[in-house]
Amino acid sequence: MMNFLPLTDSVPLAHIVGLGVAVFAAGAFGFLVRRNLIVLLMCVELMLNGANIVLVAFSRAPGAADPQVWVIFMFAVAAAEAGVGLALAVLIWRRLGTLDIDALKELKG
Amino acid sequence: MRPLLLNAAFYLLSGAILAGAAGTVLLRRPLYCALSLLFTLLATSGLYILLGAELAGYLQIIVYAGAVMALFILAIHMTGQDEPAKLPPLPRLLLMAAGAGAAGLFALLMLASSRFFIAFVKLAPEPYSVAEQAGLIFGRYAPQFELLSLLVLAGIAGAVLAAKKKL
Lengths: 109, 167
What we know:
The structure holds two protein chains of two kinds.
Chain A: E1 10-12, H1 13-33, H2 37-63, H3 66-96
Helix pairs in contact in A: 1-2, 2-3
Chain B: H1 3-26, H2 30-50, H3 54-78, H4 92-112, E1 120-122, H5 130-138, H6 142-163
Helix pairs in contact in B: 1-2, 2-3
């Protein structure tokens, strides 16, 4: 009954949610393995982007505009996060001369 | 547009988004990561417009691909990160554990949302009007909107305080 890759003007919700979740998982993987602070922030943006894709997909499936409004709110959150995060990155670079997170050991007991 | 073209556009954009995400995570130079992320964000805005979220798509180009990415590229150049860092390679175990964790996350999230998967999403539907969304933002979500403006204000103040050498 489920007709995958149909030649219609619609796609299964599973494909769109899968795309969003895959982008989210890729961002999470990058956050775990990268060591440059700025690249870590980019991975966070990637995760936010994946979440936004899922929200837009679900806003179309049951048919309410609310999730699209949440996506717009998320843009503001992401912009604030990037602003503060990059300011902190510049501050850390000025203090330590590096953005390698392995060099951040000041909180070690 | 013909249905087949819409369908092909969706899968092309999906491939572009996934390729850009992979590039962001895997490329060595931070500047290339940033350009790859920019590519992902632009493809995502195309996807939003294809799914009928036009306002979100245009705002994605303006706010994300415009302002936020400009900030990232400025920070990369300011801190001289355009060369790849010469670091010892990560332990193989860590890479495998992170890969397994990401795969598990993917499986878990797909499992959690799988009961909705019988639904289909129409491509290029009539978009929700800007007036309708503005009605929601300034109606039902007005308190959240005000909180958001407070958050952005706090973000601006925090960024200035953090980055300034001497007040």
